[in-house]
Amino acid sequence: xxxxxxxxxxxxxxxxxIPGFGQILNRQYKKAGIIxxxxxxxxxxxxxxxxxxxxSTPEFTEKISAGSMDLFSIFTQNGxxxxxxxxxxxxxxxxxxxxxxxxxxxxxxxxxxxxIHH
Length: 118
Hints:
Layout: H1 3-16, H2 21-25, H3 29-56, H4 58-66, H5 71-78, H6 80-117
Helix pairs in contact: 1-6, 3-6
């Protein structure tokens, strides 16, 4: 892959596709696997948290179907566990973006200096 394209593509895929994908483009497979495993775990935790929230508070389901309450209101009122999951997955997403950006620039610079010196 062209190194200049990788500087843009790697962080964007980590930001827009899934965290860890940019690390794959940077050939950091172990780090990508760890990041993706953490993201998928958080997605599963989020799904179970939403299911638990709806089972534990049936009045919210009635309010949503009546149109008097939205999901954001439910999460801010009752979903402390969900808040943790959303905040932590957001931090992982941001980390994946900046890590992919940093290492794609680092690899581009190191490869460029090798080309210049040879």
